[in-house]
Design brief:
The protein is mainly α. The protein has 7 helices and no strands. It has one domain. The longest helix has 21 residues.
Amino acid sequence: MSSENIIKKYLLGELSADEKASVEERLMVDRDFFEQMGIVEDELIDDYLEGNLANKNEFERYILSNPKQYRRLKIVMALRKTASEWNGSRSEPLNKKGSRSWLRALWAPLKVNPDIAKAS
């Protein structure tokens, strides 16, 4: 099983107690694995908000039981809403799998007016 799948199963509470302990131990000693955890969490949040998450109930249980992750979800929701408002009538989705277009959209107003960069 890939690291990404192990992390997803960990986050969704689908691992045995021994597997969970193994993941938690690895998180403490493997920086790359720890960073991958954050990436997988972001992908799960994106998939959830786009309605592309098959195990939605498990994800909601995870998010609601973890105040830090629930705050992260709320922040991403607010960022997406702001990016959507800034993009106006953009015809493509704000975030395709593997793309962070919603984040780029937040910076779009700065790119529109080059005088903003000169003023600082």
